[in-house]
Amino acid sequence: MKRRKLIQTLITGTAAVALAPVQSVARSFDNHSFDLKNNINHSVCRWTYGFLSLDELCLAAKKIGIKAIDLVGPKDWAILKTHGMDSSMCNGAEIGLTKGWNDLQYHDTLIKNYTEHIELVAAAGYKNLICFSGNRNGMDNETGMNNCVEGLKKIIGLAEKKGVVIQMELFNSKVDHKDYMADKSEWGVALCKKLGSPNFKLLYDIYHMQINEGDVIRTIQQNHEYFGHYHTAGVPGRNEIDETQELFYPAIMNAIVVTGFKGYVAQEFIPKKNDKIASLADAIKVCDV
Description:
Blueprint: H1 2-13, H2 15-19, H3 22-29, E1 41-45, H4 54-64, E2 68-72, H5 77-82, E3 86-90, H6 107-124, E4 128-131, H7 141-162, E5 165-169, H8 185-195, E6 200-205, H9 206-212, H10 216-223, E7 227-232, H11 249-258, E8 264-267, H12 276-287
Parallel strand pairs: 1-2, 1-8, 2-3, 4-5, 5-6, 6-7, 7-8
Helix pairs in contact: 3-4, 6-7, 7-8, 10-11
């Protein structure tokens, strides 16, 4: 998967950090604490800081004021609870990024996996569980959407009963995820409307949607009721959300706040600067409007 390859690259490129003693890493956290305005619930995706152990990432995140870690599965929830951190977007039920709900051949496995994970997420006191459309593989958008509806309807009742929100992530198919079906907000919103459940929403990834369609703020303003979660990263390159990239995140965050959104915004950039904890702290400052 794309994320795994990027994690491996990140680990290789930051071996000195990865091998540093925990005490040394922990000391660096102390330089990045500050007061937050509490208009945005901040999270960070685990995979982009894969050179840290989950314990180390929780320590760093708490110092900065981050409340949750994104994309953590059941086997690691105990670590989050030890640190008092939320699992803002749970994973583990999916088959992969390319094999999703748009393909009938995967439905039996997905229904089994999601039925089990909805129970686990609810029992742990969490809320969000990620899912993916899968790739087109020659399939047209309408067929793929109808297949998604057919499969998701078989788990959405349980999700509603347990208070779990199934969230399909939107990816770009131009650069990172060639052939992925849920690559436009319009398609995702239409899927939400067809399902007609408050427990199915879209994970609006700002990085991906800037690449595939742009017009980020207007899209948020017009479709926010269907967006249950947000991811960030710099465009181009998926690096820090600083002056090197084309998105102005304070304005985007203000647009999100105005909608009344109470969920999480998770940082999903790949830090390229030497002080990667400082990069995370800086990103939270940029987004804390």
